[in-house]
Amino acid sequence: MRLFRCVLLVMVGICSVVLSGCSFVWTTENGNPATPEDIKAVVEKEFSVVHPRLVLQSTVVEKEKPFQRNVYVFYDESNGFSFTINSVVHRPTLPAPGGERDNNADFAYSQAYLVHLNSSLVESAKRYSMRMATHEEALELAKSKATRVAGTNKIPLFTYDEIVFVDKAVKGEDVLTFMKSIYSQYKPQDNPALLPTERSIGFYYLPKGEEDKTKAKYLISFRFKAKNDWKETMLTGIGSTGADTSAVERDFVSILDHMIRQSI
After folding, report:
1. What single-letter DSSP state applies at residue 215?
2. What is the dihedral of CA 102, 107, 110, 116, to 10 degrees?
3. According to the model, what pLDDT value does residue 2 have?
4. Is the pLDDT of residue 5 over 70?
5. What is the value of pTM for the model shown?
6. Distance CA 92, CA 89 (A)
7. What is the DSSP letter of 214?
8. Which of 97, 168, 200, 226 could hold 195 in an S-S bridge, CB 3.0 to 4.6 Å?
């Protein structure tokens, strides 16, 4: 048993060196969580594609040692939003003594950035005669009791991170152009950092002048994933046998044009 524990501790030591750039580091149960300076350095490096410049706003010790939990609030001066990080020491995942230093910096920053991005997307949608729900509106719509039929089942109508309403004035080409714009902002320079988890967008038909969004008709949805390029992103929503991106884009436009016409 002692030999097993020694071998395990050696393995953990090696992992600590190899994984020092990850979000967890081996420590003791009375060790300190990652500091605000640690978090700032990691986030500014990981998300350098959007040029964050972080300023610490507050620090709260949520739980004292052992297994300390800290909460940090940062403000990103470059992009203009605040976000909250949990920085903790918890029991090891491996069956060994000590503790693991962990934080949710990557997830917390990316989600806060994408929510912040929503306001500019709402304005951008207007240029294509579309109406995009604000983040707050999307949360409220998700709570509504509106449903749609999927196969033989009724499911909630609004289940997507972003919600866009189109009317008969919108063309498939408009939707394609808007989607490409969103893709370029979710994956700037094809960098996947902002998508540690996938993000979804749903398109709905709603006649111009209709204010009751629960009367919208579901058309199609797409998912943005870190591993997917633009072509693969389109294929999360449409069926296409196109051999290249241009062919898939042509199918995209044709399918969306047909869906909108059928909904009028």
Report:
1. G
2. -110
3. 54
4. no
5. 0.89
6. 9
7. G
8. 226
Q: Which residues in the chain belong to E strands, given as ranges?
A: 25-27, 54-63, 69-76, 81-90, 99-103, 131-132, 147-150, 153-156, 162-166, 199-205, 217-224
User: On the CB side of 90, how many CA atoms lie within 13 Å of its CA?
Assistant: 11
CA–CA gap between residue 190 and residue 111 (Å, rounded): 17
pLDDT value for 134: 98
* pLDDT at 15 exceeding the cut of 60: no
251 to each of 220, 221, 222, 239, 261, how far by Cα in Å?
Answer: 14, 15, 15, 8, 15
pLDDT digits (tens, 9 = 90+) for 20-74: 334 457 899 999 999 999 999 999 999 999 999 999 999 999 999 999 999 999 9
Do 76 and 54 meet the contact criterion of CB atoms below 8 Å apart?
A: yes
Handedness of CA 5, 6, 11, 17 (dihedral sign): positive
How far apart are alpha carbons 1 and 261 in whole angstroms? Answer: 71
Cis preceding linkage at 66, omega within 30: yes
**How many CA atoms within 13 Å lie on the side-chain side of 177?**
12
Angle at 69 between CA 64 and CA 71, to 5 degrees: 120
Tokens 């204010």 sit on residue: 211
For the segment 134-143, the average pLDDT, to the nearest whole number, is: 98
What backbone torsions phi and psi does residue 87 show, to the nearest 5 degrees? -120, 120
Q: For residue range 82-103, what is the model confidence (pLDDT) as tens digits? A: 999 999 999 998 777 889 999 9
